[in-house]
Amino acid sequence: MEATKRHFFSDMGAMLGRSMRHITRSMDTIITVTIIPIAMMLLFVYVFGGAIQAGTDNYVNYLLPGIMLMAIASGTAYTAFRLFLDMQRGIFERFHSMPIERSTVLWGHVLTSLVSNTISVVVILLVALIMGFRSSAGVLSWLTVAGILALFTLALTWIAVIPGLTAKSVDGASAFSYPLLFLPFISSAFVPTESMPPIVRAFAENQPVTSIVEAIRALLSSQPVGNNLWIALVWCLGIHLVAYVFAMWIYRHKAA
Amino acid sequence: MQNKAIQVKGLQKSYKKLHVLKGVYFEVEKGSIFALLGSNGAGKTTIIKILTTLLKQDSGVTTVNGFDVTSKPDNVRQSISLTGQFAAVDEILTGRENLIMIAKLRHLTNPRQIADNLLKRFGLIDAADRRVSTYSGGMRRRLDLAMSLVGKPQLIFLDEPTTGLDPEARIEVWKIVKELADNGTTVFLTTQYLEEAEQLADRIAILHEGRIIANGTLAELKKLFPPVKVEYIEKQPTLEEIFLAIIGKEEEK
Fold it and tell me: Measured between alpha carbons, how far is B17 from B122 in angstroms, rounded to an integer?
């Protein structure tokens, strides 16, 4: 009677089942998440593309990694949004007054973000294929790309958890993603950094998006990846760790 | 054997500079209905949050079903259930899915069966597979209560269960609460309505400016007031009585 059993995985399953239903019943969120990156891809390939000197004959190949990161950045805003709504309504309090593993309340949202962002990335990949994206990468390279994207998603999702838990309004909850959407522009995602003025270039070359984009690009075109892969992984893991610790601290604080 | 469901001694809680609870004392007998009465902002919800392990107390000794809320929150959570002020239901899920989810989170063996039984009991079987966002306020409240009954907790907390409900839905909630108590569940409820406390509670405590200023059965509380004076006043029907009378006639047809 005294001992209370922990049920991390079954609680997790129930939470995941719940928020996955939220995703499948609001497919419009996936469309919203993918439509802007797809529009960007069309715009850059068919409008600006002719004037951009990216040193490649297939600009879709060049552009795709950055577009995928943008989609993920805007996709994670929905995690903040859903979390905020949960906080607003009584459902969080109900969960917290029940004998469940509390952290699964957050993990359910985070894993759901991983699944829904995977769907968006696949949709974008399909559109890119239609637009002429081609890759010579083998299975291992593809798996590495998937791994980087998954880590990137988790890192951004844990960042999203923070405003989700602390925001005062719905708009505030998802506003954090706007600067993240801009980062790809000041990176090598759309144009090579060599053309940028020194200060901008220094920023662009040392921010996470560039190394992640370069690593994915190299992997997809079967080029040597070099250090970029490790730099990208360190960025993703580092952001993930810091955001996770911070988010969990806020969560414990809020949930008393 | 413990026969107290709740024991609160010297409970204090402040929010920054606001001293909300200034030493609250009360006990709730197992199997009884206990109503905590108080105006808005008196600290009723704060007491509920502390008793349901959502909020930490500053000082005092609080035990729920024999477990200390500070040192044994998991044991407390095993034996209680909370229906908060705002219906804690998932709008995107259906009524059935909401109940199944809670049954799974309570690690019960037959979630579907439990959901079915509760849907029947609360008259939600027809709406079971509709999204909760399409439910009326009364239906939402019923589902909310049904979710609180999953796993048959020994002690149920209801924070202003009828606030914002129409008179019919309110009477329905009262019926449910009475049934619960008849089956041996302890009910702790807060309310702003004297009438609600009168209708339901075995014991009533009045929370005012951070302290319990009166605590007793209805009869005991009545003794605290000046003796009854007989006056003749024309009894006007209240709007609520008129509403219920009309609704009643409609249903008879």
Answer: 43
Domains of chain B: 4-252 (3.40.50.300)
Q: What single-letter amino acid sits at A110?
A: V
- Under a CB-based contact definition with an 8 Å cutoff, are residues B60 and B248 in contact? no
**Bridge partner residues of B12 (DSSP):** B22, B59
State whether residue B60 is helix, strand or coil: strand
From chain B, the residues in CB contact with A102 under 8 A are none
Mode of pairing for the β-strands spanning B155-159 and B67-68: unpaired
Burial class for A186, CB neighbours closer than 10 Å (0-12, 13-18, 19+) = middle
Q: Is the CB of A4 inside 8 Å of chain B's CB atoms? A: yes
For chain A, positions 92-111, list CB contacts with chain B under 8 A. Answer: 93-100
8 Å CB contact between B166 and B24: no
Around Cβ A225, how many Cβ atoms within 10 Å?
17
Strand pairing report for B186-191 and B33-37: parallel
Q: What is the pLDDT along chain A (256 residues), one digit of tens a residue?
A: 334 567 888 899 999 999 888 888 887 888 888 888 899 889 988 888 777 777 777 888 889 999 999 999 988 988 898 899 888 887 888 998 898 888 888 998 999 999 999 999 999 999 999 998 888 888 999 999 999 999 999 999 999 999 999 988 888 888 888 888 888 888 888 888 888 888 888 888 888 899 999 999 999 988 888 888 899 999 999 999 999 999 999 988 876 5
Q: Are the C-beta atoms of residues B2 and B65 closer than 8 Å to each other?
A: yes
- Asked if residues A233 and A208 have their Cβ atoms less than 8 Å apart, the reply is no
Q: If DSSP codes are grouped into helix, strand and coil, which group holds residue A1?
A: coil
Contact A188, A213 (CB under 8 A): yes
Interface test with B, best of A93, A107, A251 (most B CBs within 10 A): A93
* A152 token code pair: 């990137």
Shortest distance, CA A17 to any CA of chain B (angstroms)? 8
In angstroms, the CA A132 to CA A61 distance is: 8
Q: Do A26 and B82 touch (CB under 8 A)?
A: no
Q: Are the beta carbons of A16 and A112 closer than 8 angstroms? A: yes
Q: Where are the domains of chain A?
A: 24-254
- Measure Cα distances from A79 to A10, A38, A241, B22, B136 in Å: 21, 21, 18, 39, 28
Give the 3-state secondary structure of B90-155: CCCCEHHHHHHHHHHHCCCCCHHHHHHHHHHHCCCCCCCCCEHHHCCHHHHHHHHHHHHHCCCCCE
User: Distances from the Cα of A169 to the Cαs of A83, A91, A114, in angstroms?
Assistant: 12, 17, 24
